[in-house]
Design brief:
heterodimer, A: Rossmann fold, six-stranded mixed beta sheet, four-stranded antiparallel beta sheet, B: mainly alpha, 0% strand, disordered N terminus
């Protein structure tokens, strides 16, 4: 896996308009393979819109999204889903779907219209996905009866069953308590470390971005505002510029700088 | 630590057990529905003003039946029973498919204009142009498909969203419904036949009707079963479905068209049987679950059994008067459905 040269996901001159309103304007960005990239920015800046365009959930854009040198619009949906998986926000499933059924849905891109694919391979992939998300004991539980953290892990397991090179996550820790937030972030970190999976995630918690990301992309005013490492990007000044928040910086006992918002900054 | 591990192993075994249990449950219900279909078939052919025995059915079907009973089986009971079964299959499948693609539990063939379109076409022919009454079946079919297409076009705006189809469907149905009422009021002296048709019934249905409906049933069942796993994915929501590589728009268009064809073929033959398309898929979902690979065959079987059994009861309970089967199904089916609903929730 590590020796295979991974394709770069990139957006070129990407402009997205929703109902005539420009959400993203002429965005150019590429994501380093094998890294964890966090996308941050204020509400309404276009973070989710960028993620959806990258994942092909929304094809109504100008410009192009490239995977390697291929235009993702031209790839078949299933071929694309075998290489890139996305976890959108706020998902629900019918009340009686079990964890193992949900994870098995992740094998859909490997199945033909009439054919069953490779059942043995499918079973292996589902089992591995369950193991990586620590859900082996939950196989026959109904997804909607799980706690928030377990449910999020189940959806991550479904994405893993797709066996993608690239995993996109839209605010994967929203609505979770801090313990489950870290649990989910640790799973994501582990996937990146052990499988060299490229991770691109929208995060709203700046300190998660500081702790778990290799690269930061800041979105503001319909475009890329900054891109770089957490240390050079996530500063007190940036929080004031982008979020309008005055913050202090501390170094925690892991040696990681954390930002603590104090008050709204005086807007000039 | 070791005890904990043991506990985990035990949990896992028990969970494996519940998976098997739900698989078992599906199988039991599918077998039960199959038994109901067999029962419905036999009862429907045997019961009536002239009682028929099972031996006579066997003789008529597989060999050397003779005499008037043979005639009754082959020319009256058997074709009517087959029409009932096919209509039940088509309407139940149509409703089940629509509930998945609209992600709305109230979706049924009415919602895509099948009833109002077929209704207006049929009522116009029967009341305003009675000389053309022999064309009711094709006209109702065209009316149903026409209304479904109009609703689809009205709901189309950069793709289809279920809620727009439902709202467009309500509006178009109200519009066409006004037309039906107007035609009936201006012809109130001869409205009886049209009313019977609007309620839905199987009286005098025979081989020609079988010939009209069976191709749709065959194609419909095959396409629905192929579509089952796609409908499962669609139930996860548009975004997740796209993320998993499903062509959401195409799936929705193809499956809506299929549901429209299934319902239109049924409605054009027996009139506006309302109940089967809404309640049968729901009842099956409550019993079997939401996995469409089981839900669709379950709905087809239960739909066939429901219409065959209801029609038998409708024509024998108050003999020699024959009730329209639509009334009967609603009277017995609605309380049964409410029972299922109360028990589940």
């Amino acid at each position: 896996m590590d020796n295979v040269k991974q394709a770069v996901l990139a957006a070129k001159n990407l402009t997205v308009k929703i109902e005539e309103k420009t959400i993203l304007s002429d965005v150019n960005i590429s994501f380093t393979p094998g890294k964890r990239t966090a996308i941050i920015g204020p509400n309404g800046a276009g973070k989710s819109t960028l993620l959806k365009a990258l994942a092909g959930l929304n094809h109504r854009y100008e410009g192009s999204v490239l995977l390697g040198d291929e235009d993702t619009k031209k790839l078949s949906r299933k071929a694309f889903a075998r290489r890139l998986a996305i976890l959108p926000q706020g998902m629900t499933v019918p009340a009686d779907v079990t964890v193992s059924e949900l994870v098995d849905y992740g094998r859909f891109p490997y199945r033909g219209i009439m054919t069953a694919g490779d059942p043995k391979r499918d079973r292996e992939a589902v089992e591995q996905a369950l193991a990586k998300t620590h859900l082996k004991g939950y196989m026959s539980q109904r997804v909607m009866t799980l706690s928030g953290g377990e449910r999020q892990r189940a959806f991550i397991a479904m994405a893993l069953a797709q066996e993608p090179e690239i995993l996109l996550l839209d605010e994967p820790t929203t609505y979770l308590d801090i313990g489950h937030q870290l649990e989910v972030m640790n799973i994501i970190e582990e996937l990146n470390r052990s499988e060299n999976m490229t991770i691109i995630m929208v995060l709203h918690d700046i300190n998660h971005a500081l702790q778990y990301a290799d690269e930061i992309v800041v979105i503001k005013d319909h475009g890329i505002y900054r891109q770089g490492t957490p240390g050079e990007i996530l500063t007190v000044d940036l929080l004031a510029e982008v979020f309008g928040v005055k913050a202090d910086v501390f170094v925690n006992s892991n040696g990681i700088s954390v930002l603590s918002p104090i008050s709204l900054a005086e807007r000039s | 630590m070791e005890a904990k591990e043991n506990g985990k192993a035990l949990d896992k075994r028990e969970e494996q057990g519940t998976t098997d249990a739900s698989r078992m449950r599906r199988l039991v219900f599918l077998l039960l529905f199959s038994a109901l279909v067999a029962l419905g078939f036999i009862v429907s052919v045997e019961m009536g003003s002239v009682p028929i025995t099972t031996e006579e059915i066997y003789a008529a079907l597989f060999g050397n039946g003779a005499g008037t009973h043979q005639q009754i089986i082959m020319n009256i009971r058997l074709p009517r029973t087959i029409v009932a079964a096919l209509v039940g299959i088509n309407l139940a499948l149509s409703g089940a498919i629509l509930q998945a693609i609209m992600k709305n539990p109230l979706a049924d063939p009415h919602i895509i204009g099948i009833s109002s379109g077929a209704g207006l076409a049929a009522v116009l022919l029967m009341l305003a142009f009675p000389a053309l009454e022999y064309l009711v079946t094709p006209a109702a079919f065209l009316g149903a498909m026409g209304a479904a297409c109009v609703i689809y076009l009205l709901a189309w705006k950069n793709g289809i969203r279920p809620v727009r189809i439902i709202l467009a469907g309500v509006a178009v149905s109200a519009f066409l419904g006004a037309g039906i009422s107007a035609v009936m009021i201006f012809n109130s002296d001869k409205v009886h036949g049209a009313l019977m048709w609007m309620v839905g019934g199987l009286a005098t249905r025979s081989w020609p009707h079988v010939g009209i409906i069976y191709p749709y049933t065959i194609v419909g069942v095959i396409l629905a079963m192929i579509g089952a796993k796609h409908l499962n994915i669609l139930q996860l929501g548009d975004e997740m479905a796209k993320g998993l590589g499903l062509n959401v728009e195409l799936t929705r268009i193809v499956m809506t068209a299929l549901a429209a064809l299934l319902a239109a073929s049924a409605v054009s033959v027996v009139g506006l049987l309302g109940f089967v398309g809404l309640i049968v898929p729901h009842a099956v979902r409550l019993m079997i679950g939401s996995d469409y690979r089981y839900l669709l065959p379950g709905a087809a079987l239960l739909g066939a059994a429901t219409v065959m059994l209801s029609d038998t009861f409708a024509r024998t309970a108050f003999a020699p008067t024959e009730l329209p089967v639509g009334i009967l199904m609603a009277v017995f089916g609605a309380p049964f459905f409410l029972f299922l609903l109360r028990r589940e929730l």
